[in-house]
Amino acid sequence: MTDSTQEKPKPILQALQYHQHICEWLEVNEPKVWHWFSDLDTLEKSIENTRNSLLKETYRLTPESHSNVYELCQLAMQRLGIDAPVTIYQANDGAMNAALYYIPGEIHIVLFGALIDKLEKLELLALLGHELAHFLLWSMDEGRYLIAHQVLEDSVAQAPHNNALYETARLFSLHTEIFADRGAVVATQDYRYSIAVLVKVMTGLSSVAPDAFLSQAKELDEKGNISDAKSHPESYLRALFVDKWQSIQTIEMPTDSAVKLTNEGQAIATNAEQLDAWILSKLKGKLSIHSLDLLDQQQLSRDTSGFFRYFLNETEFETEEVKNQLSMYFSDWDVHQDVLNIDTLKERDFDDSILDYFIALIFDLAFADREQSDEILTKGADVAAKLDVLDMYKNKLKSVLKIPKRKADKLCSLAINLQIDAKHKAAQ
């Protein structure tokens, strides 16, 4: 008799940090939508549509007619720790690709183009591992990553001009493909076959050199490029990601001989977290007002509140007029909450649009109470100097507020003098 209280074994693969953070955000901030997509009736309708689509649009392969494909699929499932019935299909589309059609507890993989003929045995194993990893992710943690995916896709369809929703859905999809690429590595126990599949699907070639493409990817990475892909990261990035991931892993495979995918000999959790952070930076680049996701929006809101508190700290600027302006940003404004550390803000990797935003906040305060505009703008120059953007601030005074050059120079000079005085006092 088995112990029903015994914990399930930990999956070979773990969801990336971005997956986890978005699920947490959606559960807290959109509980009704989350619940609706968790509903069994909603899932049943989706399953029925999936079955009909498979019957209409594909040719079903059998274990008897394509035993080699099914045997490779079983091997990949064993290595990924998956146990479920499998059906494999061939689509009528000529472009090489593959897709998982998700049904809980069942695996349905559709092959497109001449994959069976073009891919070598271990390359096909890698491709099947990739698709099986999609099944693994959607099945993990009671389906929460699938729910998040569905919520985001539906939200973007309902509000196509919401940039934050679009960016979140984009990044979530890209991370999902990165997770699936790791499944290809686990299935083959060699990241090079995963890269080979990427190149063959991209080029249509019958023979490729994975190491040569990885070298090409590293050369491109040195130029500082970031992804602008919508659903799948660029192939060169995917090659870099699996290369870096396998280099920090020690994975005990559920096979006769455990295989270690590592250069270091031991998987370190902090390395995995650093890798996830690096991957996110390659997928989105510097923080920009124009490409905030839901998490960025939340963080920028906290930073905005903290920036106001920092700016108003130990001043007499908080008049009724200024409070009214602050209430337009925060209905529950409380000056006694946390103050933003200006050095922390300087360490953030953002572009000029974020600096423009913080300068605009200062201008809003300055013109909320015109009786103290000059004093607030002088304090703004002081803050801009601490952020190393005093020249940008001075230019904004002239171009946005139309302040004459002489006055703009004077306001900035006053700020510099204030900093000099502060340093003298600190030294005494």
Automatic annotation (TrEMBL):
Keyword terms of this UniProt record: Hydrolase, Metal-binding, Metalloprotease, Protease, Zinc
Highest rank taxon of the organism: Bacteria
Cofactor requirement: Zn(2+)
Start and end residues of each Peptidase M48 domain: 76-243
Cofactor binding notes: Binds 1 zinc ion per subunit.
Gene3D superfamilies: Metalloproteases ('zincins'), catalytic domain
Protein name, per record: M48 family metalloprotease
The family this protein is said to belong to: Belongs to the peptidase M48 family.
Naturally occurring in which organism (per UniProt): Glaciecola petra
Single GO MF descriptor: metallopeptidase activity
EC numbers on record: 3.4.24.-
